[in-house]
Write a structure and sequence with these properties.
Blueprint: E1 10-14, H1 19-30, E2 34-39, H2 42-54, E3 58-63, H3 69-83, E4 88-91, H4 106-134, E5 137-142, H5 154-174, E6 179-186, H6 199-209, H7 217-228, E7 238-241
Parallel strand pairs: 1-2, 1-4, 2-3, 4-5, 5-6, 6-7
The structure holds NADP nicotinamide-adenine-dinucleotide phosphate.
């Protein structure tokens, strides 16, 4: 493979088994990064690793539930042990029940808080000491447009507002150590995201979106690639990308 813009870099992508995470892993690998890929579905992780290798790239699949602190910590530990460093941490894993508060169960609140907030904080906590030692690093957090504006998805929106706020505070805290933080806030993207929701919620989301042309996962991966290939002096703070027709 020809050297790319990320040759020599080690990246860790959570939520790599579908949608935005998968597209991001492929985009980073195509630019030469050694990509560690993490999520819970092992077969999909292994398939993706194989596709990356067949294209001439390097991949390390790591089965991980990011909402489990010990697993999140071990995921980062494995990357450091097996790849020697960690340059890019891409927190893509997320779950959502895009429903009003009164149509969301307490188990669903808990899962969204666990994955969308704690599942981002644990990997960052584990990665920061190594990035500080390296004097270099970049953390990307995939939040959502619903983390900036209000859409009818009360708890999901709340978790994404929290993580967008955390991203900006963290950026201000660790930029002096040459660690960059970028928050990505997409509108509707065509992935498996809605298909994981309860049937009534999925139907109401599909009805709301209608036949609007949604973004593709590759559109978000390209935005992430843009942010992580800037010169070191530039921190892309926030990228908000919506389908042109989405209000
Ligand atoms: N699609 C949209 O319209 C949209 C819009 C704005 C923001 N987003 C955000 O974009 C991110 C990616 O979503 P997507 O649209 O690409 O959806 P997706 O296709 O459903 O992908 C979600 C990914 O997260 C992983 N994941 C879920 N829970 C996990 C856990 N506990 N531990 C580890 N991995 C976990 C899933 O893998 P496993 O099931 O294999 O673990 C999967 O790889 C999410 O943070 C989402 O909130 C999506």
């Amino acid at each position: 493979m020809q050297p790319g813009k990320l040759s020599g870099k080690v990246a860790l992508v959570t939520g790599a088994t579908s949608g935005i995470g998968e597209a991001t892993a492929l985009a980073l690998a195509a630019e030469g990064a050694h990509v560690a890929i993490a999520a819970r579905r092992v077969r999909r992780l292994n398939d993706l690793a194989e596709r990356i290798r067949q294209a001439g790239g390097e991949a390390l699949p790591i089965e991980t539930d990011v909402a489990d602190e010990a697993q999140a910590s071990e995921m980062v530990g494995r990357v450091l042990r097996e790849c020697g460093r960690l340059d890019l941490l891409l927190n893509v894993a997320g779950v959502g029940v895009a429903a009003p508060f009164q149509n969301t169960t307490t188990a669903e609140y808990r899962q969204m808080v666990d994955v969308n907030i704690l599942g981002v904080l644990y990997p960052i906590h584990a990665a920061l000491p190594a990035m500080k030692r390296q004097g270099d690093g970049h953390i990307v957090i995939v939040s959502s447009g619903t983390g900036r504006y209000i859409h009818p998805s009360t708890v999901y929106s709340g978790t994404k507002h929290a993580i967008s706020a955390i991203a900006e505070s963290l950026r201000r805290e660790i930029g002096k150590d040459w660690i960059r933080v970028t928050c990505i806030e997409p509108g509707a993207v065509k992935t498996e995201f809605t298909s994981r929701m309860r049937e009534d919620v999925r139907k109401s989301v599909e009805q709301r979106l209608g036949d609007m042309e949604q973004l593709e996962s590759e559109d978000i991966a390209a935005a992430i690639l843009y942010a992580v290939t800037q010169p070191r002096r530039i921190n892309i703070n926030i990228l908000t990308l919506y389908p042109t027709q989405q209000a």
